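To the team - 4-nitrophenyl phosphate complex, inputs and output below.
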Amino acid sequence: MISKDKTSILLVCLGNICRSPTAHGVLEHRLREAGLEVFVDSAGTGAWHVGNPPDRRATAAALRRGIRLEHLRARQVELEDFRRFDLVLAMDRDNLDNLMRICPPEYRSRVRLFLEFAGDRVSMLEVPDPYFGGDDGFEQVLDLIEAASEGLIEQLQREGA
Ligand code: 4NP
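Output:
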């Protein structure tokens, strides 16, 4: 259930330089196209890349679809995020588990896998980490993120966000 005030969504991966900034840029872009006012942010469970812009491969792949990421900067998830955001959406199960470990019990229902929202558009529940792979990994990340964003926007529209 998504609350009725201005909805806020936090997208989370490990480094906050590949998957979650891509999801941040894509979801924000698609929400704007749909005319929905939703606050979107992203963060990493790890701190290695705090303050850095997205990986240039992620930025280049997103730009090929008309979406800019270079203004984003990595930050680490903080406890306050669980209170501030209606949804805290993890890119994979490792990150979901790490979020659940630190999430105050009253906010656990806000923490989910992002790809749950893709429904039957895709057959995967995790966005694979593209960091150590080739450029096609970044294209797959975008395809999965587009599917989840579409499903999430449909749900927000149904709920009158
Ligand atoms: P992300 O990708 O979690 O999608 O941002 C990664 C970025 C960096 C590392 C791992 C994954 N790293 O090990 O530094």
